[in-house]
TrEMBL record:
GO terms for biological process: methylation. The keyword Chaperone does not apply. Keywords: Membrane, Methyltransferase, S-adenosyl-L-methionine, Transferase, Transmembrane, Transmembrane helix. This is SAM-dependent methyltransferase. GO terms for molecular function: protein-lysine N-methyltransferase activity. The keyword Membrane applies. The chain crosses the membrane at residues 41-59, 64-82. It comes from the Bacteria.
């Protein structure tokens, strides 16, 4: 069951709200005669959010789902209370979502991020191989790029979602770490890299391997976070001990398959 919720967190988040609702109703019902309407609604919404977030934590959902679970009832409650909301916040929210996720429907690769533990393992891997060039295909906010750049290593990332690219570019500029380019990973030159890293989805893996195995130089390495290349045996699979139980699939280039 926990595995199902970890794979489809929205189900766990919905369950958390449903379970929290009667508890909050039971706790706040006795207060109706003594507490005024608005403070009581505020207490109920805060309790609902906190309890739902706690349940999401118990279900071991990724951390941002705890925040979503906490904010969801507060946002819904506030919208209902305020009533007659202007249309522009919804338009703005739509625009932001479009700028972040516009590429998801085409490429079937959503935005989720490599965690710090995995980035640290990747850094060790590069040190061990004395690798100096790394490219993150679909670099998201550029966390891996920033983590791996430095100590003689040159890390680059390519990203095609407009808002995500801008955020990654900004973060690289203010930290002075790494190089972020706006572009399509399928059109990116990978021939000079010692390591190419990708954390995408199952959908593009076969085609991606087709590109990398023909375009990367012999002796280089492709590392895929979580998603294996179908019908190709990785040289190694590293199972990390982070909370997500990340698996890294290592594919050396130029080895007979
Ligand atoms: C799962 S996220 C991983 C982000 C980052 N690599 C990390 O590990 O933190 C995948 C990213 O790939 C980007 N992406 C998907 N298709 C792409 C494409 N064709 N070209 C460039 N980026 C792409 C998405 O916008 C998203 O930011």
């Amino acid at each position: 069951m926990l595995v199902l919720f970890r794979k489809t967190p929205i189900l766990g988040a919905l369950l958390a709200q449903v379970v929290a609702l009667p508890v909050v109703a039971a706790v706040t019902a006795p207060l109706t005669s003594s507490v005024e309407r608005l403070p009581l609604i505020a207490i109920a919404l805060l309790l609902q959010g906190a309890l739902a977030a706690l349940i999401c934590g118990l279900l071991k959902l990724p951390r941002w789902w705890l925040l979503i679970a906490f904010l969801f009832p507060i946002a819904m409650g506030s919208a209902l209370l305020v009533g007659n909301l202007p249309a522009w916040p919804f338009g703005l929210a739509f625009l932001v979502l479009a700028l972040v996720f516009s590429n998801t429907t085409r490429g079937r690769v959503p935005l989720y991020l490599t965690n710090a533990e995995t980035a640290s393992v990747l850094k060790d891997l590069m040190r061990d191989r004395s690798a100096t060039r790394v490219l993150d295909l679909g670099c998201g906010l550029g966390g891996v790029v920033r983590a791996l750049n430095g100590e003689g290593r040159k890390a680059r990332g390519v990203e095609n979602a407009p808002a995500v690219y801008l955020a990654a570019r900004f973060l690289a500029a203010v930290t002075g770490r790494g190089e972020i380019r706006r572009g399509d990973l399928w059109k990116t030159d990978v021939s000079q890299e010692d390591v190419v890293y990708a954390f995408l989805s199952p959908a593009p893996m076969a085609a991606l391997w087709q590109k990398l195995s023909t375009e990367m130089k012999p002796g280089s390495l492709f590392v895929s976070n979580s998603f294996a290349v179908p019908d190709v045996d990785p040289d190694e699979i590293w199972e990390l001990s982070d909370s997500r139980k990340t698996r890294l699939f290592l594919y050396p280039i130029g080895k007979a398959e």
